[in-house]
């Protein structure tokens, strides 16, 4: 495309709340035939809210444990942690002795004679904490409602085994326009994939809501970039759409990188295109814009 066509394209993008940082994205956007979407904050609102807190300990033990849970999540920067903190009424402050954040898993801290953990099932497994059948059943039921389930557990220092203290269900609604945007991409013959660090059950429920048939759950940030690389190795021109720090490697790897304007600064720094309104319908619009830009000179 000519410099003029690029300038026109960038201008039209801006009018549509699509910020385009380089000419290349406009040149190749129309050739994209695979799109990888992050789930949380990209397909969903990214503003999680706790809907259920189910204790598996006696009522009189709950206030003290709730204070520990609060202290743990208060130190985490994960959006799920913010939801937990917002849900709990601030109780007497608890002084945690250590704090560890486990990527893709959750957080843990030492308090008195125990290690306290909040996170996903993998975090439980890694700490030799069994999930009782009844809790597993409840978790599955909540996950099938597209909710993310997080476990609060404890292992006493001398004990060989720990116990699950509570499960929390967290909802993060799909954005109103996500399905429409994905339908449009699919109808254009573009292969659409969803990637998430969340568990398989929740991922499947969300994918179904928006009409995505191909998705991968429980992926680590490096897995996201590897997935993009695999598609490219199979000859695909890949656009990656994400909002988080954990998407930045995949964004850097993609042929066309698109960040959500309401997402993390790091994602926006890496991505060559930013969708100011964080609305997925801007993705087909951006690809259309590329088509128009290139057509000008042909
Ligand atoms: P994503 O943001 O896509 O879910 P992450 O890798 O950030 O991916 O997290 C993966 C999973 O780890 C979350 O879905 C959640 O189950 C668990 N997790 C991570 N951090 C926390 C936290 N602070 N509190 C509770 N669970 C957490
Ligand atoms: Mg995200």
Polypeptide structure, described:
Helix 9 links the parallel strand 9 and strand 10. With about 300 residues, the protein is of the alpha/beta class. It starts with a helix and ends with a helix. The mean pLDDT is about 95. The protein has helices spanning about 5-15, 25-30, 40-45, 60-75, 80-85, 120-125, 135-145, 180-185, 200-210, 220-235, 250-255, 265-270, 280-295; strands spanning about 20, 35-40, 50-55, 100, 105-110, 115-120, 150-155, 165-170, 190-195, 215, 240, 255-260, 275. The strands form 2 sheets. A 7-stranded mixed sheet has the order 1-13-12-11-2-9-10, sandwiched between helices. A 6-stranded antiparallel sheet has the order 3-8-7-6-5-4. It folds into 2 domains: about 10-45 and about 175-295, Rossmann fold, CATH 3.40.50; about 50-170, Calcium-transporting ATPase, cytoplasmic domain N. The chain binds adenosine-5'-diphosphate and magnesium ion. Magnesium ion binds near residues 40 and 242.
Protein traits:
298 residues; Rossmann fold; 7-stranded mixed sheet; 6-stranded antiparallel sheet; 13 strands; binds adenosine-5'-diphosphate; binds magnesium ion; Heavy metal translocating P-type ATPase
Short description:
The protein is an alpha/beta fold and 298 residues long. It has helices spanning 3-15, 23-28, 39-43, 62-75, 79-87, 121-126, 133-143, 178-187, 200-210, 221-233, 248-253, 265-270, 282-295; strands at residues 18-20, 34-38, 49-55, 98-102, 106-111, 114-119, 148-156, 163-171, 191-195, 214-216, 238-242, 256-260, 273-275. It has a 7-stranded mixed sheet with strand order 1-13-12-11-2-9-10, with helices on both faces. Strands 3-8-7-6-5-4 form a 6-stranded antiparallel sheet.
């Amino acid at each position: 495309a000519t410099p003029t066509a690029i300038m026109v394209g960038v201008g039209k993008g801006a009018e549509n709340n699509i910020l385009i940082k380089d000419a290349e994205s406009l040149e190749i956007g129309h050739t994209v035939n695979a799109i990888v979407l992050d789930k949380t904050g990209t397909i969903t609102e990214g503003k999680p809210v706790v809907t259920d807190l189910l204790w598996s300990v006696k009522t009189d033990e709950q206030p003290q444990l709730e204070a520990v849970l609060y202290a743990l999540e208060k130190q985490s920067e994960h959006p799920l942690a913010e939801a937990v903190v917002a849900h709990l009424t601030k109780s007497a402050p608890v002084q945690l002795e250590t704090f560890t954040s486990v990527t893709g898993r959750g957080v843990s801290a030492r308090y008195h004679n125990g290690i306290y953990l909040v996170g996903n099932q993998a975090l439980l497994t890694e700490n030799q904490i069994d999930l009782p059948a009844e809790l597993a059943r409840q978790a599955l039921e909540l996950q099938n409602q597209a909710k993310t389930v997080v476990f609060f557990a404890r292992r006493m220092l001398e004990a060989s085994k720990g116990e699950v203290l509570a499960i929390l269900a967290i909802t993060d609604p799909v954005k109103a326009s996500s399905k429409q945007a994905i339908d449009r991409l699919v109808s254009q013959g573009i292969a659409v994939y969803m990637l998430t660090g969340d568990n398989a059950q929740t991922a499947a429920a969300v994918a179904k809501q928006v009409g995505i048939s191909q998705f991968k759950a429980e992926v680590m940030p490096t897995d996201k970039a590897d997935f993009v690389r695999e598609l490219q190795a199979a000859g695909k021109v890949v656009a990656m759409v994400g909002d988080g720090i954990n998407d930045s490697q995949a964004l850097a790897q993609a042929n066309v990188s698109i960040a959500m304007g309401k997402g993390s600064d790091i994602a926006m720094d890496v991505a060559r295109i930013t969708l100011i309104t964080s609305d997925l319908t801007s993705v087909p619009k951006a690809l259309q814009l590329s088509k128009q830009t290139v057509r000008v000179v042909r």
